[in-house]
Design a protein that fits this description.
5-stranded mixed sheet, Aminopeptidase, 2 helices, about 90 residues, about 40% strand, alpha+beta, single chain
Length: about 90
């Protein structure tokens, strides 16, 4: 799956698109220069069970590492991924 990223000001998303239709999306808001708040994750039924949501979180983690920022996962799904994947703890902002 190809994860795409778009940002407009302090709002952004990581998403999976097929045939110009978003099948999965994780949205975030930047709080200052050093914090990304993940607020929502949605995966269509077509991608359920294929790890799409986790791949979106992974893309956000890679982005945060590259930018030197921390992630505050307010979205329950994203929080559960952070709780399970110990390798993501370096970018977690509690």
């Amino acid at each position: 799956m190809n994860i795409l990223h778009q940002q407009n000001g302090s709002k952004g998303s990581f998403y999976i698109e097929e045939n110009n239709q978003r099948l999965a999306e994780m949205t975030y808001t930047l709080a200052g220069e050093k914090r990304m708040i993940i607020d929502h994750t949605d995966v269509s039924d077509a991608l359920r069970g294929k790890g799409a949501g986790k791949q979106l979180v992974n893309a956000a983690v890679d982005h945060a590492r590259a930018k030197g920022i921390k992630i505050l996962p307010l979205c329950p799904f994203a929080r559960s991924v952070f709780d399970k994947v110990k390798e993501f703890q370096d970018v977690l902002d509690n």
